[in-house]
Design a protein that fits this description.
The protein is built from eight helices and six strands; from the N terminus they run βαβααβααβααβαβ. With about 220 residues, the protein is an alpha/beta fold. The protein has one domain: P-loop containing nucleotide triphosphate hydrolases (Rossmann fold, 3-Layer(aba) Sandwich), CATH 3.40.50.300. The longest helix has 24 residues. It is globular, with a radius of gyration of 17 Å.
Length: about 220
């Protein structure tokens, strides 16, 4: 494939990191990931969302803008685990809904976000990963991250509702929607190959695809 710049979006534990890693290895693409281990605010945020939500959003905005600019300008194809757009459309909205960010702070954040995003190159493709909330919750429990222990089904459902709204109006680039609860990119190479085929189709503009089809 020619040089492409791809973003991976989706709810917590939807499979973004696994897919990004697998595609990077398989296709030789540059990869970039959400800052989790080295994030100076994430643990504090999960412990006290009201005190740290605004700080976390500002950190992520700068972090993702830096990633987006660097990889969109790279000489070879690149893929990023989580898009900058989700910061505003999903997580900042959720923080406002839950009262962990005030209306004043939200409006300040949105102003800075809009200024930054307006200067960024558009991606060639956004891969949207999704799975039922109960599956996401099971995965979060299984991976056992201390900072994620406070995440519950209600929060995941709120995020999921915002993802659905966002996807319904997203028009910055083509979108490949993938349901991940029956896919295993890591241990089943045939699943990864099918996804790569769908990515190629999307980048070539061949068809509108949702994969796998809902049963």
């Amino acid at each position: 494939m020619a040089k492409h710049f791809v973003l991976v979006a989706g709810n917590i534990s939807s499979g973004k990191t696994s897919l990004t890693e697998c595609l990077g290895r398989r296709l030789g693409w540059i990869t970039a990931y959400e800052s989790v281990v080295d994030n100076p605010y994430l643990a504090d945020f999960y412990a006290d969302m009201r005190a740290w939500a605004f700080h976390l959003q500002i950190f992520f905005l700068g972090h993702r803008a830096e990633q987006h600019m660097a990889l969109s300008r790279a000489a070879q194809s690149a893929i990023i685990d989580r898009s900058i757009y989700e910061d505003a459309e999903i997580f900042a909205r959720a923080a406002l809904n839950l009262g962990t960010i005030t209306e004043r702070d939200y409006q300040t954040y949105r102003h800075v976000f809009d200024l930054i995003v307006g200067s960024l190159a558009l991606p060639d493709l956004l891969i949207y990963l999704w799975a039922p909330v109960e599956v996401l919750l099971d995965r979060i429990v299984d991976r056992g991250r201390d900072m994620e222990r406070s995440i519950d089904a209600a929060y995941l459902k709120l995020l999921d509702s915002y993802y659905q709204e966002w996807m319904a109006g997203f028009d910055l680039c083509p979108v490949l929607s993938i349901r991940t609860d029956d896919l295993d990119f890591v241990h089943k190479p045939q699943h990864l190959e099918i996804v790569i085929e769908r990515i190629r189709d999307k980048l070539l503009g061949r068809e509108e695809i949702e994969f796998p089809k809902n049963s």
